[in-house]
């Protein structure tokens, strides 16, 4: 069987392999079959073969033409087709709070010192952790809880109405950061976010419009390393 398709020039495609998807109510699996062509009869399928990572990567490249090459900036720590990880040094950013209980309402819209952070975007999800030192981390660097509302215990951001860019290219990094800081911080998803003696409210109240750097000794250290964070492992 041959297929003739015009996409600017003539290409002759031959049917070589088939993928069969089996589904029940809870699970699914896929088998790969060689297609046996016969000039006088319909094509038949050969024995089932297991899928391999090499085959899937080859299939994705053929469908999408491979990832576009990008120039990586110094803050990028890791990059793949659908994932990017970068870090930000200590800085000052404006933050917005909208809590139904009125907590920290007095600091809504103020500017605060920020801890150094690592950011991970994978398949449209944003995850954030804090750094214990204000320098570029390495694979074995231990991470800490990012002391923000709207984050789950694994650091994943509850985006809600947050404006999110499409994709995970280097060019989208400023948009992800801006979307995070310009969103409304509305609630805490975990019990403890900081070691500060005054708790969450005491921490951020003490940083309101002040030039002193974020107190890194108030961060809660995790067993998770940067390498595990990049791979999406909790540690």
Describe the structure.
The protein has 235 residues and is an alpha+beta fold. The protein folds into two domains: 2-64, no CATH class; 76-231, no CATH class. It has helices spanning 53-64, 173-182, 199-205, 226-231; strands spanning 2-6, 10-14, 17-23, 28-38, 41-49, 76-80, 83-88, 91-94, 96-97, 111-114, 117-122, 125-131, 142-144, 184-185, 221-225. The strands form five sheets. A six-stranded antiparallel beta sheet has the order 6-7-11-12-13-15. The termini are far apart.
Quick recap:
This protein has 235 residues and is an alpha+beta fold.
Main features:
235 residues, alpha+beta, 2 domains, 6-stranded antiparallel sheet, 3-stranded antiparallel sheet, 4 helices, 34% strand, elongated, disordered N terminus
Helices and strands, with pairings:
Elements: E1 2-6, E2 10-14, E3 17-23, E4 28-38, E5 41-49, H1 53-64, E6 76-80, E7 83-88, E8 91-94, E9 96-97, E10 111-114, E11 117-122, E12 125-131, E13 142-144, H2 173-182, E14 184-185, H3 199-205, E15 221-225, H4 226-231
Parallel strand pairs: 9-14
Antiparallel strand pairs: 1-2, 3-4, 4-5, 6-7, 7-11, 8-10, 11-12, 12-13, 13-15
């Amino acid at each position: 069987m041959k297929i003739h398709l015009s996409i600017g020039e003539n290409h002759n495609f031959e049917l070589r392999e088939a993928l069969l998807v089996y589904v029940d109510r809870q699970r699914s699996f896929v088998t790969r079959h060689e297609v046996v062509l016969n000039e006088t009869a319909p094509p038949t399928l050969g024995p089932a073969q297991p899928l391999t990572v090499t085959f899937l990567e080859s299939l994705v490249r053929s469908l999408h033409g491979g990832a576009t090459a990008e120039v990586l900036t110094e803050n990028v720590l890791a990059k793949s087709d659908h994932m990017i990880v970068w870090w930000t040094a200590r800085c000052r950013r404006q933050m917005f709070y909208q809590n139904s209980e009125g907590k920290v309402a007095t600091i809504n819209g103020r500017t605060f010192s920020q801890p150094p952070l690592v950011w991970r975007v994978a398949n449209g999800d944003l995850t954030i952790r804090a750094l214990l030192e204000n320098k570029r981390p390495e694979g074995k660097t231990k991470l800490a809880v990012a002391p923000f509302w709207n984050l789950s215990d694994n650091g994943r951001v509850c985006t809600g109405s947050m404006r999110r860019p499409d994709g995970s290219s280097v060019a989208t990094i400023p948009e992800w950061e801006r979307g995070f800081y310009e969103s409304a911080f509305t609630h805490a998803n975990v019990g403890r976010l900081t070691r500060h003696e005054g708790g969450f409210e005491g921490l951020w109240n003490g940083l309101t419009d002040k030039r002193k750097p974020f107190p890194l000794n108030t961060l809660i250290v995790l067993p998770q390393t940067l390498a595990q964070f990049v791979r999406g492992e909790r540690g």
